[in-house]
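Q: What would this chain look like folded?
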Amino acid sequence: MPHLHVRFVVHEPFEAPGAYADWALARGREVSTTRLYAGDALPTSPDDIDLLVVMGGPQSPATTLTECPHFDAAAEERLIRSCSDAGASVVGVCLGSQLMDEAFGGTFAHSPEREIGLFPIELTEDGLADPLLADLGTGLAVGHWHGDMPGLSTDARVLAKSAGCPRQTVRYAERTYGFQCHLEFAGEAIRDIVAASTEELAQNAGRPFVRFAEQLLANDYQPMNQALYGFLDWLAEVTPTRG
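A: My prediction, written as structure tokens:
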């Protein structure tokens, strides 16, 4: 069986791949990780990438190199588009989904509500018709941590929404999915982001879709992790490999 090579792009140490990496390990996938915060060079070519997963971060697509020297939004957008155009599968998570949107000609936007916590998403008609999302069902409670959301390019299809955000999952091209939500939260991944976000949580306390640190740490994320595994299994099944 050909090996599926998964490449993770990680912006900050507290925005770990979490359940995405757990899935890759459990399934015996070939994995490489670009840790931009540690000075790793971003790939400039889609060569040897079958599945690209671009993680989240506190940046936005508008963040400049002056503001964050290890984050080059334009370069990441070129990589996303080149991987998709070359036939690789691409998943963008939170910031990654916003970069994906811009890679396909859209413009990211502010979400109507800031969401930090575990809240349900609802599949749209397009989402219900997408076989790769079969394991997500509708009404699944998933992790959220965002104030922005992806925009919509010409051919984009919104697959899921939440009460606080109308664009939770968007398909931009074949096997190219943006998840504003965080299906990867689990164990160390959620503990790290909570520890790094004390000030943010305090500043947003009292908002309707923002939960306290204690609640975030106590949530049961296994159902959404299993749903993510199902999505990734389906995605891997239809992803052509080049190795």
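Residues 222-238 form the longest helix (17 residues).
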